Amino acid sequence: MSVINTYKPPAFQELTEPAPGPFDIYFNGPVPERLESPRVRLVPYNPFVHSKAFFNEYRKSPEIEKYLPVTWSDYGTFLTWMQNNVHSDPKALVFTIIDRAKGNDGENIEESIAGLIGYLNCAPRNLSVEIGPVIILPRAQRTFVSSNAIGLVLKYALDLPRDGGNGYRRVTWCADPNNKASVRAAERMGFKIEGEMRWTWILPVGKDGGLLPVDGMRREGEGRNSTLLSLCWDDWEAGAREHVEKMMERV
């Protein structure tokens, strides 16, 4: 019996402004209207509402890209990457992080936007998801924003449905092994290092990943390993939930 493969990748879209029409979140799991603590609010990222405010702050600090596996040289590059690598992937969901202490309880997005956080590789069948990307804008770094944003996405993933979560079993975090701050941030929130995954990213040409291509047949761009951390349901029920809540309450 013959077999066929009808899969077609989504058409590549190059953007200079957000794509016209209603924004389709296109996610394979439930999408909350908002996740909220007294200090931080997460709302599903909408390029029509959030992209310009985010990128205007992001571009002020080029060093923020040092450990990211991307390069967003201009607004159009950012929109294009998000559309083709996040919005067209049903396993990915991004939230805008809003600092509720700014801009009239966060209503003024230009004043209150604090970064992006989300889910990648969402696998509802296996009750597993990865947290990423985690981008905290410089003006919100070394504040309560990071712990509250991470805490909210952890609670939404690992809390049981009766408590407002999805009852997942496993949440992972991947970081550039050289990005010690990212690894420490995850460990502070209860994640445990499982090991290092090899050759997980092909980086944009010119970006240092530490792994040179071994031949001329496997595309341009250096490779990068990733430190893998996890926080699982049994950790959560054994005290990690309470630890995360305490971290979110710290000044």
TrEMBL record:
<dbReference type="GO" id="GO:0008999">
    <property type="term" value="F:protein-N-terminal-alanine acetyltransferase activity"/>
</dbReference>
<dbReference type="Pfam" id="PF13302">
    <property type="entry name" value="Acetyltransf_3"/>
</dbReference>
<feature type="domain" description="N-acetyltransferase">
    <location>
        <begin position="65"/>
        <end position="210"/>
    </location>
</feature>
<dbReference type="InterPro" id="IPR016181">
    <property type="entry name" value="Acyl_CoA_acyltransferase"/>
</dbReference>
<dbReference type="GO" id="GO:1990189">
    <property type="term" value="F:protein N-terminal-serine acetyltransferase activity"/>
</dbReference>
<dbReference type="InterPro" id="IPR000182">
    <property type="entry name" value="GNAT_dom"/>
</dbReference>
<protein>
    <recommendedName>
        <fullName>N-acetyltransferase domain-containing protein</fullName>
    </recommendedName>
</protein>
<dbReference type="InterPro" id="IPR051908">
    <property type="entry name" value="Ribosomal_N-acetyltransferase"/>
</dbReference>
